[in-house]
Design a protein that fits this description.
By secondary structure, the chain is α/β, with parallel strands linked by helices. The protein has one domain: Isopropylmalate Dehydrogenase (3-Layer(aba) Sandwich). The chain is 42% helix and 21% strand. A hairpin with a 7-residue loop joins strand 6 and strand 7. Helix 1 packs across helix 10. The longest helix is centred in the first third of the chain and has 21 residues.
Length: 345
Amino acid sequence: MFHFGIIPGDVAGKIRTRCALKVLARVASLHGIDYQLDTFDLGADNYIETGELISKDQLVSLGAMDGIFLGGFGDPRLERSVCDQGIKARIWAELNLVVTMRHVFVYSDTFCPLKSFGQRAVDFVIVRENTETSYSNLGSFIHKNTPDELALTQGVFIRKTVERVMRSAFILAHRRQLRKLTLIDRSRRVPAHDLGRRVFADISREYPDVVTNAMNAEEAAGAFLVQPEQFDVIVTTADIGDMLMGMGLELQGGPGFGFTAYHNPGQISMFEPCPSAEDDWEAQRSPNPVGAIAAMAHLLVTLGKQEAAVHLGQALSRTVREHGELFSKSSIDSDAVAELVIEYL
């Protein structure tokens, strides 16, 4: 029996969660997977009503789950950072979710802006650090709100964390068909990035079958547009990774098609669809559920249910490929997409 922690989140997140859970129920019944859902009512409604974002007890309970699914935050009554920082970032820190991964691939050439590439060339995984570097929240403001204001932020690189991220990337590259790993940084301009280079070189000796290379961030950004097929697994820092992940989402067809995985390797993982419609408040009640369903499939992968995950991934791909018209509108029938996936299962 698996125990899943479910955080539906806000309006669009709740819809995506509903769709993902419908599909999970079907694929679980087909593959004999027993599970229990523990739902955590976190988000704008709860915060406005109680004044609390997330409690210590809730963090402890989430840490005891076999996996966590987050539908997503976003509500016009609150600044986006309130729940992202007060809930999601606290979960990252408390559960030590230091490794972030995003699989960038194309369901249908129709949605890829690089018309000469598409499915043929876009299939890679970005691995980045999640809780340190410029995300460490170390910094201050001097003379705030005056003409002489100075904003300071401090990047932090802890070798143990760098090693965990690098090793996760090497393990993933070792398991993939191309077995190629690219380190992307700014070591020419940021001396601290030399730590990553040295750790990368040290761990590479343990994986002689993985082909490695290193690129500057600016060079890599250009390669995303003109030669995406050269990438298999990418490992990078938090800030560079965010930029590349954003570009990767556009290669897939937009945020609604993607998902993000946060890992404490060997311990626990959390999965979240990349936000889309909730940032457009007029369309927040019709979000694209593809990323949420894909996130659920990859949650199954981490639990060793590879066959079920592949089955679900194939049904999802067929839905997008054969029903592209559903995703070319400003308003998507989220439940209709989920029902099609269930039908193909």
